[in-house]
Request: fold
Amino acid sequence: MTQFGAEFREKYFPQVPKDVTPVNHGSYGLTPKPVLDFLNELNHEQEEYPDEFYLLTAKNKYIAQLKALGKFLNVDYHNLALLPNATMSVNAVLRSIPWDLKNDKVLIHSSTYGGCANSVKFVHDSLGLQYDIIDLQYPLEDKDVIAKFEEKLTKNNYKLCMFDTVCSMPGVRLPYEELIKACKKYDTWTLIDAAHGAGLVDMGFLHKLKPDFVTSNLHKWLCAPKSTSFLYVDPKHHKTIQTFPISWSYALNSTELTKEMEENLLIEKFWFSGTINYTSGFCIEKAIQFRKEICGGEEKINKYQADLQKEAIDIVLREFGTGAKLLDNSTHTVSVAGMFNISFPKNERNTKFIEHLTESFAAYRKFKVKCETKMVVDHKAFAPFIAHNNELWIRFSVNIYNTAADYERSAKLIKQTIEECIEDELK
Ligand SMILES: Cc1ncc(COP(=O)(O)O)c(C=O)c1O
Reply:
């Protein structure tokens, strides 16, 4: 078996040029070669004879992926649908629910992914749906996060609460199991944004806690090609949920359903909602197989990421120098084995500017674009950052193709880039 790290990268991720230091798996993921090869084969098959592919083959392939995914997640595959990404899944849920606009209210948190928060805002702006936002300023203890949600849930009658397994920026883990339990206690439906979910965190909560709606990207941490996510829908919502965009299957709403049709309703609705390239989604089984057979399974992957992450944290802290901190709490439950955040060291010269970035979104955007372009183009070592709670948090990812050298190189270059961009602004 090829060892994770440099040799693994060379063999299974040869598409990544040697001068690129990939420490941002969290944003888009990277697909291993055997899965990419399979994707190419599928594309070829699709283009050879589209009539056969779309009319006869596609639905069977779709169901085969659901079955493989259902087994991996330990859930009934009839409760799963495939969508291109987490944003679309969140949109599908928010725009399917027949809101009672007089009474229904939605609860989200301030570190909700921007695209998904905007989906809530859109339903507010277009329909008038009310929503509240819980302010989360990190670092935070899990018990304080839970208390903030509880406080809101006790006082209001929320129809639905949307929260993450792991937030995007900063890349912090929420106590999602406790939050599902809290919502259940108050009869609030849960919409869980597990964009950073399958392949990164334990998804056992699906089976154990039976939330209402969960979406997880599979192109981020499960080695599937881009445009692959699933939406888990509790059976009690199968009739309500609609495809995004609304399409052929909406007609099923006015059809009398047999028991068998009801059992397969989610499949009937979601397997086809317009002609797109479905081949990425059809690689799920292959991606799961890659992780099991070539990587040696989820535990082995998780252990490599956890061990390398410990080393990487020390390296980045050392390279960033005095004043740099790991985003953590007293129970060490903020980071997952795959993503960690380090603050950019503040000093007499830059403190005011960094604090200004957390107050002015316009200044932050301008600064961010400048820094990111430099990182991507000049250094080919990119890690996203956010101005949050008077700090600049840089999010590093750790994966099976990484080595300690990736963090030495990227930390040096990222620090240099941010320093240069701050100096530019202070001139
Ligand atoms: C927490 C979270 N939600 C949603 C998304 C959106 O994912 P996608 O672009 O695949 O829809 C991301 C992407 O990084 C994310 O981090």
Q: What stands out?
A: Residues 36-289 form a domain with the Aspartate Aminotransferase; domain 2 fold (CATH 3.40.640.10). DSSP finds 16 helices and ten strands in the chain. The two ends are 53 Å apart (CA to CA).
